Amino acid sequence: GCRGAIHRARSGGRNEPSTSSACSDKRNVVKFSRRASLGLSVFGAVLRGSYRPESEAFGAEIIYDKGTTLQGKTLSTRAMAPAGAEGVAAESQETSGIFASLVVPLRWRCGEVREEAVDAGSRYVWSGFTDPVDGQGILDRAEVAILDYPRALEAGYLDRVYKSGTIEALGGGLPGGVLKENLRRADIFRASTRQDAVGTTYYDWELAASPQACTEEERKMLGICPYESVTLLAVAAKDDKLVTLTIESKIASFQRYTKDIRNAMRSFKLDAGT
Asked: Is it the case that residue 28 has pLDDT exceeding 80?
């Protein structure tokens, strides 16, 4: 499944697919709420592996030899193959002239991409990402939306949303449906901007959401309900379109595949149609 264009990428111990275009990437300070600061310590423990919910099972980590050459594959909204080919879209009906892509490790498996019509645009969804070596789930879904949203083309608009550093500004500044309802109260833990070779700016966020209810024991131990999922969001505007990438992963999967998942978000890029 999720077949796409293949390229080779160097790895420093894990499969780390490179982006197809050179992007500058800088980290920026984001203002955190007290709740987010508390959650950040929990989130850090999750990534270090010191906090593991009993309900989650972890298998042996897959280790790759440092320096080995590994392959990545490109998932794109551009037409990739005739209708019916596994993991790729049929001839795209996208007429905006803007296409988007991301790169994931070649070994990942997923279901066929679905193209859906949504208000003011199109959405492309890949789901059910798994590692064929051990059958572990990786991503619940990766979704690209290409939308008409003239507001985002105003000078400095996305910069203002980004610099606000709040989930309220992020949710209010993007079209309805980009952030799911459970993310309206999510915490922002990481944010960055980058530019590609043609000057397009990409805004990247990492969000973690807690359930509205949890056991008293969990709340006493952590101070908040433990996070269940991580969502990575990348946003860019080009011509007359706003384009978003949303990657959803359970906490256990994100802990296991952190580098690969973050690299997939950083590989997200836009291309003009020809």
From this structure: no
> pTM of the prediction?
0.74
The rounded distance, in Å, linking the Cα atoms of 138 and 230 is 12
What does the alpha-carbon distance between residue 108 and residue 178 come to, in Å, rounded to a whole number? 25
On whether the CB atoms of residues 183 and 229 are closer than 8 A, the answer is no
Contacts of the segment 128-136: beta carbons below 8 A, 24+ positions apart: 128/1, 129/2, 129/104, 131/62, 131/107, 131/257, 132/107, 133/62, 133/107, 134/59, 134/60, 134/62, 136/59, 136/253, 136/256
Sheet holding 269-272, edge to edge: 5-10, 69-76, 98-105, 269-272
User: Sheet holding 141-148: strands in order across?
Assistant: 24-27, 187-195, 201-209, 229-238, 241-250, 141-148, 121-127, 114-118
* Polymer length of the chain: 274
- For residues 91 and 78, the answer to whether their CB atoms sit within 8 Å is no
Grouping H, G, I as helix, E, B as strand and the rest as coil, residue 158 is helix
- Buried/exposed code over 69-106 (b: 16+ C-beta within 10 A; e: otherwise): ebebbbbbbbebeeeeeebbbeebebebebbbbbbbbb
For residue 34, give the H/E element and its range.
helix 34-48
Tens-place pLDDT, residues 85-139: 344 443 444 445 889 999 999 999 998 889 988 888 999 999 999 999 888 899 9
For residue range 164-190, list pLDDT tens digits in order: 988 999 989 998 888 888 888 889 989
